[in-house]
């Protein structure tokens, strides 16, 4: 229940047409709404060491570092400690060789994730044939943009 940007400052805070007290009051309201006793744990992994470091840095900035464990790991070795929700944003690939590598990764993800059906899986990909490489049609799909890139959120929850 942490408001997005709660620890940031915004240019609009300097606009003379908005009473500065409004910003202070709303920031206090947002801070008061944070559920510090919420039962939340997150685990993350990436094969890239720099991505792991950046994730930990961003978790600190967001004030959730104590609830997140991040490690360097390959998806081939993924094993959930307990049933939960798995959210993946795998590399997309931009050049032909990279696209082929991404397709191989989607196949591996499908094999690994399907071997653990007690989890719900949500995967972002722009690849039109993602489900083919993953090996299963999604239970539901949603169009979205990741930055400026048109993607799909593939949802596997049944």
Can you tell me about this structure?
This protein is an alpha/beta fold. Helix content is about 35%, strand content about 20%. The protein has four helices and six strands; from the N terminus they run H-E-H-E-E-H-E-H-E-E. The protein has helices at about 20-35, 50-60, 95-115, 130-135; strands spanning about 40-45, 70, 85-90, 120-125, 140-145, 150-155. The strands form two sheets. Strands 3-4-6-5 form a four-stranded mixed beta sheet, with no helix packed on it. The protein is elongated. The two termini are about 25 Å apart. The mean pLDDT is about 90.
Explain briefly what this protein structure is.
The chain has 158 residues and is an alpha/beta fold. It has four helices and six strands, in the order αβαββαβαββ.
Strand content: 15-25%
Q: Helix tally?
A: 4
The run of helices and strands is: HEHEEHEHEE
The geometry reads as: elongated
Oligomer: single chain
Largest sheet: 4 strands, mixed
E-strand count = 6
Mean pLDDT: 92
Low-confidence stretches: none
Topology diagram in text:
Elements: H1 20-33, E1 42-46, H2 49-62, E2 68-72, E3 85-88, H3 96-114, E4 120-125, H4 130-134, E5 140-146, E6 149-156
Parallel strand pairs: 1-2, 3-4
Antiparallel strand pairs: 4-6, 5-6
